[in-house]
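Input record (one chain):
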Amino acid sequence: MGPQGKDGFGSLTIETSSLPPIGEFDVLVKICAVSLNFRDLMIAKGIYYWPIKDEVVPVPTQTHIAGTMTLQDAMNNLGGLMNGGLREYAAYNENGLVEIPASLSYREGATLPCAALTAWNALYGAKPLRAGETVVTLGTGGVNMFAIQFALASGAQVIATTSSDKKGEVLKKLGVHHVINYKKDINWGMTAKNLSLGGRGADYVLEISGPNTMEQSCNAAAIDGVVAIIGTRGGNDGAPTLPHIALVTTRRIMIGSRLQFEEMNRAIEVNKIKPVIDSKVFKFNEAREAFQYLWDQNALGKVVIEID
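The corresponding structure, as predicted from the sequence alone:
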């Protein structure tokens, strides 16, 4: 599938092409499902703020995700991290594919390469999360839903923010210890800090909204806490406002490595973690609707498109 330019979701069109050529170390993959990321939406709308390859710009779901895949001849369950996943078949280098946990379906496996791996890297990529520490998450998108599950599995305290009480109830069912509605509490950062164990603040804050919420994220963090900077969903206007005495470590997260991916998959298997997928799953020919659905912030968890 590809758009006729970068003029929004209405420009997405289905295109037919020949099967890709296969190199010596390539694998021909039949893609069963993909999941969307906010980056996909920004590219399709022509508002992505980082340089990307020309051949990536015009294609929807030119995301870090290629979805869950089946190897044609061996029928192994594969997941990968590459551009151009919204298609029926693709050829990828064998080193770019990772086996997904046997306990997950294709839909569930499609959520791992970007959202789950980003959350895992944020919590375990530098200073590994330990039991009894506090994690603050922002919103109910894919990255933070995975972060919640990973943190709870490690024995950490989890404080989650959300935009609605309805979504808050879902978070509580997942096991979140405290939920804050950030639309009702504009000083949610200090609220989160006060709710943390001993009132010392969060050891980890997963910042997905950008400069507009950075001050609150720093307010929520403990001294020497880590603010993992993941995205700019709340806007990218100007430099972030940081408290003058914010003694925190900021760490930019760019997904994760293959080694982290395999480590994460083992943790998912052992802890029987199931990805949170929005109840509305889209078909291949409903890609435009899927993009709009995620853009309108209707999703709870990951938005998945089934290819077959």
